[in-house]
Amino acid sequence: MMEHRFVRQNANEAMDTTELRVSADDLRGLATKILRSVGTSQADATVVANSLVRANLLGHDSHGVRRLTGYVEEARAGRIDPTAGPKAETTRPGTVVVHGRRAFGQVAAEHAVRELRQVVAAQGSGVAAIRECNHVGRLGEYVGTLAEHDLVALAFGNADPTVAPYGGRERRLGTNPLAWAVPRGTGSPPVVMDWATSGVAEGKLAVARGRGEQVASGLLLDADGRVSTEPADFYGGGALLPFGGHKGYGLSVLIEVVGGLLSATGIGSLPGYTGGFGTVLVAFDIRAFTSAEDFREQTELFCRELAHTGPAEGHREVLVPGELEERVRLERGRNGIPISEDTWHELHALLPPKEEREP
Amino acid sequence: MMEHRFVRQNANEAMDTTELRVSADDLRGLATKILRSVGTSQADATVVANSLVRANLLGHDSHGVRRLTGYVEEARAGRIDPTAGPKAETTRPGTVVVHGRRAFGQVAAEHAVRELRQVVAAQGSGVAAIRECNHVGRLGEYVGTLAEHDLVALAFGNADPTVAPYGGRERRLGTNPLAWAVPRGTGSPPVVMDWATSGVAEGKLAVARGRGEQVASGLLLDADGRVSTEPADFYGGGALLPFGGHKGYGLSVLIEVVGGLLSATGIGSLPGYTGGFGTVLVAFDIRAFTSAEDFREQTELFCRELAHTGPAEGHREVLVPGELEERVRLERGRNGIPISEDTWHELHALLPPKEEREP
C-alpha cells in the first residue's frame, strides 16, 4: 500500500495547497465505502468507484472522486437511486433503449455498453440511448471499452445549458461532450478522443476561479455578452463559448438535439427538460468492413508516424489522442494520485461517523 | 430562362473579376452536357450535375460546377469511370460495403444512401462504407437526404494529406470533413452541419491566393513550421492546421483512420493509400427511440430559440447550422448563381467543339 503523504506545493505562491498522493487501490477502497454507505450494492459501488478513480488516474480530476460529494447529495435527495437496476429494451434489431431508472450514470452506461456489444455482435452496427441517466463520468471510458472489442465507438450527450450559441450571449447548450475510439496495435491502449464542445469545461473554470486565475480569451462571455477572461463572469450570469467557433457550435447543436431527444431527457433550454445527461452510444464492427488485424496494424503505424512528426514552431512534440492520459496514468500508477487536503477531508466527511478515517 | 449577364464586380479593387449570373436550370443543363460528353449516362450525369449545382445554390462554390474541370480530366485519365455502376454488398444485417468501382463519387454516394436507407429500415441502424470512391461533393447533401426520412445521419471521409497534426509541421491528415443532419419541423429544411476539420478548406485558400489576399492567423504553417497568413506558404510546402486546436485534430485523426481503413482507401500518409475519398455514412432511425413528430417539433422549437438568442458583442445574430446556406439558396434561386467569366469559359472549353456555346 502506498504511503499517504501530504506534500506542501506551490510554497512560493499566494495560495498554499497541500496535496496528498493516494494509491489507486486506496482511493477505490475509500470511494467504494462512501458509495456503500448510501445503499449501493458492492457490485455497483465497484463499477462507480473504478470509473471515478480511472478518471483520476488519467488526469481528469474534474471527473474523478471529487464528484462523490455531489453524488452522495443527489442520492440523499433521491435524484440518484443507488439501488436501481437499469433495464434494456431492444426496440429494433440494431437499437436499444437502456432505462437507467436513476441508477448511478456509470452503472447505466456500463449496462448500455454490454447491451450494445450484443446488438453489434448480431447486426454489425448498433445504437444505444440511455434514459433517466445520471452523470456517467468520462465518456471516453465507454468508447474505449467498446474499441477493445474491435469496434468503432462514438458517444455523446447533452447536459444543463451553460454554453452560448456562436454569435449569441445566452446559455442555450450543454458542454455536450463527444468521444470516439478505435483500437490500436496489440499492447497499445485504444486511440480515444474525448472532449467537451465548449472551449473549457466548467470544472476547470471553477478551479481557475478558486485560484484567482484568469483564463485565455475566447472561452467565456460575461452577462453582457462581452468576451471575458475572468472566471467569475461566467458565474455572474455569463456563458461558456463553444470551441472552434461555428464548427464546435454546430457539433454542440446536433449533440443537444440527438442526445436530448433520443434519450427522452429533453433539450436543456426548452420546457420539458428533465435534467440529467442524455447519453447516446453508437458502435460498429470493424470486421464487417476489413480485417481487425489490418485495422489495428495500420492504426498503430499511423499513430507512430503522427508521434514522429517534426514539431511546429512553439511546440515540442505531437501527441496521439489519448497519449497524454496514458502518460499521466503511468506516472500516477507509480506515484499515486494527487488529492488536495480539502478534497481528502471532504471525502472522509461523506462517510458515516463510525467509518471516518483521517491520516 | 434567366438572362446571362456579365457584371463587372469589385471595380475599385486591384483585380477585376467579371461575373455572370446563371440560373440553376441552365447550369445543370451545361453540367449535364459536359458529363454526357465523357460517356456518362443521362441518369448518372443528372445525379452529378444536380449535386454540383446544389452546392453552388447553397453558396459552396468550391464544391460546385468548377469541379467539372478536374472530373473531366480524371475521366480522360481513367481515374473516374463514367460508365461504372456501383455495387452494394451487405456484409452484416446492419452494415453495407458499396463498391464505387471508380464511378463518379456522387453516383456511388447516392447508391450508398439508398442502400443505407434499406438497412436502417430493417434494423433501425446501419453503416455504409464506400470503396473505390471519387470526390463525392458536399457530404451535407447525403446526410440531409437521410434526415428527410426521419433518420439521424452522419458522414465523414479522409482525403490526400494536406493538414499537420496539432503541434506538428508536416502534412499527415486530409481536410477530413464531418457532416451531421437531423430533421426539423415540417416545411423547414433539415439541420445540416458540414465542415472540414481543417481551419480552412484548400479551395478557399486557392481563392485567397488568386486574389493576393492574406488569411487569418491560425489556419496554416509555412514549410518551416511557422504560423503564416500567406496562402502561398501552403503551396510552398507548408501545411493547413486543424480547426479548434487539439480537439479538431483528434476528430481528424479518427476520421482519417475510420474513413480510410473501413473504405479500404487507406490512410493518406501511409504506404498503400490508393488515393480518393474514404467515405463512411452512419444512420439510425429516430422512431426506434421516440416519436418522429415530437423530435421534429422539439428540434424546430430549439432552432427558433437559437435564432432568437441575443447577440454577443461584435455579432449581429445567431444562425442555426444550415441556415446561411438556406438564405443563399433563396437568393441564388431568385437572382441566379454567380459564375466568374473565367469559370464560364473553362466550362465551355470542356465541351466537344460542336457543342461549344458562349453567350
Distance between the termini of chain A: 14 Å
Unreliable stretches of chain A, pLDDT < 50, 5 or more residues? 1-16
- What characteristic shape of chain A results from the CA principal axes? globular
Q: Helix-strand pattern of chain A, N to C?
A: EEHHHEEHEHEEEHEEHEHEHHEH
Overview of the molecule:
- The structure is a homodimer of 359-residue chains.
- In chain A, β4, α4 and β5 (125-131) form a beta-alpha-beta unit.
- In chain A, α1 packs across α2 (42-57), α2 (42-57) crosses α4 (105-123) and α4 runs parallel beside α5 (139-147).
- The first copy, chain A, has helices at 24-37, 42-57, 68-77, 105-123, 139-147, 202-211, 231-235, 245-262, 292-307, 323-335, 341-349, and strands spanning 5-9, 17-22, 87-92, 95-99, 125-131, 151-158, 178-182, 191-195, 220-221, 227-228, 239-240, 278-285, 337-340.
- Chain A has 359 residues and is of the alpha+beta class.
- The first copy, chain A, is built from eleven helices and 13 strands.
- A seven-stranded mixed beta sheet of chain A has the order 3-4-5-12-6-7-8. A three-stranded antiparallel beta sheet of chain A has the order 1-2-13.
- The two termini of chain A are 14 Å apart.
- The model of chain A is unreliable at 1-16 (pLDDT under 50).
- At the A-B interface, α4, β5, β7, β8 and α8 of A face α4, β5, β7, β8 and α8 of B.
Concise summary:
2 copies of one chain form a homodimer. In chain A, 39% of the residues lie in helices and 18% in strands.
